[in-house]
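In practice, a research group might receive sequence data for several interacting partners and want a quick structural hypothesis before committing to experiments. The following worked case mirrors that situation: the sequences arrive first, and a predicted assembly follows.
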Amino acid sequence: MSSTTEYTPKTSTGRIANFVDSRVGGSAMVKEFGRKIFPDHWSFMFGEVALYTFVLLLLSGTFLTFFFDPSMTHVTYNGSYVPLKGIGMSVAMQSTMDISFDVRGGLFMRQVHHWSALLFVASVSVHMLRVFFTGAFRRPRELNWVVGGVLLILALAAGFTGYSLPDDLLSGNGLRIIDGVIKAIPIVGTYISMFFFGGEFPGIHVIPRLYSLHIMIVPAMIILMIVIHLFMVVTHKHTQYPGPGRTNTNVVGFPVGPVYAAKAGGFFFIIFGIVAFISGFFQINAIWNYGPYDPSPVSAGTQPDWYIGFVDGALRLMPGYLGNLPLEWVIPFPWGDNTLVLSVLLPALVPAGILFAVMFAWPWIERWVTKDNREHHVLDRPRNAPFRTGVGMAGVVWYCTMWAAASSDLIATHFLVSLNDVTYWLRTLFIVGPFIAFFVTRRICLSLQRKDREIVLHGREAGIIQMSPEGGFSEKHEEIDVYKRYLLTNFEDRMYIPAQPDAAGHISRKEKRRAKFSKLFFEDRVAPVTPKELEEAHGHHEVEGAQHSDSIEK
Amino acid sequence: MGNHSHGSPEDSGTVAKADDVAQDRFPDPGLPPHRPRIADSDPRQAKRHERQVALLFIISIIGTALFFVAYFVLGHLGDMTFAELRVQNAVLGLGTTFAMLGIGVGIVHWAKTLMPDHELVEERHEIRTEEDRQDAVEIIDTIVEESGIKRRPLIRNTLIAAIAVAPIPAIFMFRDLERSGKTAHEMVEQLRHTMWDTGVRLTRDPSGTPIKAADIQIGSAVHVIPEGLNEAENMLNEKAKAVVLVMRMNPADMQISEGREDWHVDGIVAYSKICTHVGCPIALYEQHTHHLLCPCHQSTFDLAQECKVVFGPAGHALPQLPIMVDDEGYLVARSDFHEPVGPSYWERG
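A structural hypothesis for the assembly, expressed as tokens:
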């Protein structure tokens, strides 16, 4: 292969490196990635948190599999925890008890696993909010947004399948609710339930099945999606926040080696440290307090893991009757009566369905309304996309209303209010909350944009009160520097695009619909300050600090 | 500064209308000048940072040692008290916290204070060049041409058909996920039946001791299982359907519908404890309002109205278990439930 003289390393490290390099082509990889530039911003950390908590899940989860036995065979507990001695439970619960009490560090690992899982879903969610509110999902990253959404669903699936494994009272009740929801599915629901549980609820089959899903299929799919996700991040290069020197054609930031790698690598240990601290000091899922699953008792005030809360809350908000009209419809068919359980079906499927459908479709919705099909590598400050920020907040408020509803009983007991009133209020908020959130958020964004204009045109408040010779008081304003001014004026100025006729001069109904959305989103907008406007403002006002000639570009 | 506010956006000059486009922008001033850190120019400060980083790494080593203290000194196998376990868990956590944060904070501190903090600029590249696209199209055309898949529709169509039907067996293989081997009809039908039957005694949950009618006072609520449940095969499956709440009310306060006149014993009534919403056990009875509340989703049932839904998401009343008294004065079931217990399903009717 080598026509020139082959390189001979001098040190032993060099020899090993050369051995590997000459067989896998490491030099090319180092060349490609060694000094690759990554933009730096605190909000880019959420994705990292998600990745690192997932690594922690793999590490702690693997440890737990060495001790956990998912069998639902009935045994009598005889482990170290005295209060449950002699109590009948499944092998799954018994082995979870043994991990907690008879494996040194086992309880710690269980808590690391559970807390990491909560943090994993949380960081995926917050990461997606960051991506949404900054417009990072726009071309060319739409598909990566979808992969991220799939990862969120997989994270929920992983969390749910794992939550059920200990077979304690809480997880069994969770499965009971799932059984009720599955049975509400028309036509096939009863059979799906029978297949899922291997017969009637609870049966003796469901936990080994959930275990297979939890430790094989779901994590394998998460790993696959993470690989695709990161591969696309490399292909697209990272987005960056707007600012002086940052354009749509460059990336400004730190090289992978050494700064970025050090920061990101160090951050893994920081996340590990924080999770370890929480796991050491904050008890989670104390199954020994709940006892084994039994269909009869339930403890009041129990809450699902946070990420399932919004579905549980939707179930609570749904009325079973509208007035005297039951929402369980008994439909007479020629072969007999069938029941359509809308009171369960609607809340279990519709809100989550709408949230995920709009989430997945949003890049295309926005592209359609704005007619903007360009590549975007510079992010929006959320205030500079009032329509999107408004829609996002509408979704957040809707989600949080359902989420709060999952704790309606605790809200009632903690704040000493009527449980029924809490439900009525949350039902109202469920309907009107998103609309209020959209309009209020958009107003706030527009106001912030106008504040930005004011700062550009009249300078920032210096905090110095001056008295004029006439005795009037005024605050001194200082002109901002060119860098700040560029940040405040250089943003995407999206406008209302009225319905456009097609080639034949016809305005389609779809195009009219688009124009309506465009009007709703962009009729009110705040334009960035232009140099001309600034010049005019200077002519009208005495701007203090204008003597800094370097800050005025003429 | 009143003269700076602009009234409503519609009439203010700051809100541009669609047609007045502001195209001209301020020029990009480029990256702001780099501000050196103290350590960049002062070697003593840099040395100080170096010592701080090393100290953090040493803290990490101490944290790892602390882990071993917790593992071997505070912990031992077998018969640890719960308090000991908690202390051990906390110290394991603390040791790991120091071990990890020492490394993490140390490296980040190193990166922030001692590594160069100059931001660099890299150009983006086209994700797909037109040249690549044309080459790819050519290659794919060649592949399609050489495979002959377009020229030989018979092969293509039969292949599509074969691929379409091939996964169907994989779906059918899941039929035996239902392990009892019941027919579809039996699967659905079993939901209508519980262990309750004529003459089955009501016993206390979980002890299984029978209950005399005289033991039930007005206002009390007793958790009940059928006699023999604890010895039943598939005990949990049976229990998930058969658990019952027995309460006593003044018969004068009860609305009793036609056909249910003899389902109670002097105001002692038995209702399924499984919520008709999604199946949680209804554990809370408030004797003052004679309401039953499901703690999971707050469905509320009124005992005085035959457990009709008065609030919450449940879609139908709790099924009532007809009861009577046997020769020895014990409460027994008059029959099984007359409708399926628990959450609704398609075939419930």
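Before designing any experiment, note the following. Chain B touches chain A through 115 residues (CB under 8 Å). The two ends of chain B are 70 Å apart (CA to CA).
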